Amino acid sequence: MAISNTDIQQKLVEKFGDAVTNFAEPYGMLTFEAPKELNLKVLQFLYDDEALQFKFMTDLCAVHYPHQKGRELAIVYHLHNLVENVRIRFKVFTDVNSPDVYTASKLFSAANWMERETYDFFGVNFVGHPKLKRILNVDEMDYFPMRKEFPLEDQTRTDKDDEMFGRG
Description:
Oligomer: single chain
CATH architecture: 2-Layer Sandwich
Helix content: 10-25%
Distance between the termini: 61 Å
Shape: elongated
Largest sheet: 5 strands, mixed
Strand content: 15-25%
Order of helices and strands: HEEHEEEEHE
Low-confidence stretches: none
Number of domains: 1
Structural class: alpha/beta
CATH topology: Beta Polymerase, domain 2
Radius of gyration: 19 Å
């Protein structure tokens, strides 16, 4: 019998109590949050529990919410139970001024590259990562390009004609 979102939620609440919050089911996928200090404990529980068996990390990414003070960066884990073909989304939030989150690379090998990419574009410091350095951008970059801190285009450029872009 397939494991349901209700079963997963119940097991998480039994194990972590009020620490896991904001349960929702957008498009049928169970989504929830936990404090960033518990990210490894929650991931390890989801991995180890005999009934849950979330042993495959499909994706790890970040989202920048500049107007949520103290919760500007969300680290989003997408996990998959390959036996039951069930997917879940797990989020942790962190302050943009101290974006430290424990690495999941020892639990999921796939997290190694994804954490490096997330560091490169969002500046999330994955504590304990074996080789956290820029992977796609140049080492000399002093900013993180996917954060919503920079304008989308340079307003001082004189070499473009706005009429060509429908803005003239």
